[in-house]
Amino acid sequence: MPKVWGPYGNDINTDLLFAGKYTYLGSKPADIIPRLLEDLDAEFALNVQTGDILVAGWNFGCGSSRNQPAVGFKALGMTVIAKSFSRIFYRAAINLGLLLIACPEAVDAYTPGARVDVDIEQSQVRINGVDYQFPPLDPYVQDIVRAGGLIEAIRAKRTAAQATS
Questions:
Q1: How buried is residue 15: exposed, middle or buried, by Cβ count under 10 Å (0-12/13-18/19+)?
Q2: How many domains are there within the chain?
Q3: Domain interval for residue 106
Q4: pLDDT tens digits, residue range 5-34?
């Protein structure tokens, strides 16, 4: 069962997710993951595991257009459930294939220690057995996430088109 991190509050900016002082120290997941959430939750980088879930409030990822947080979360295979996302973070995360779910009701229902499951096909977040609906992800966005990112999705479509021609 994945660990759930949070709930973190509103307006969690990219500097809290990955401090600006590290921006030029490297862009690979191994450079990023040990510094994720360093100024927000000191336990996160020490204990996060592949497949964990992060829960947060409104406007998650606001601030700069720094991609490192999305790169780190993606490399960890995380899902981020928030009340809302900043547009620039949302676009960068989707382009990388990071699954983001906007579901205010699920965030409000979450309490530390609750079991959280996500069903993309049913557009549901289940918290302790109670389902919360979120708007279905656009099929194109689902394709990007399933492919592992925008570049991979484009390559897959190109390969499929070449195979049929």
A1: middle
A2: 1
A3: 4-136
A4: 999 999 999 999 999 999 888 889 999 999
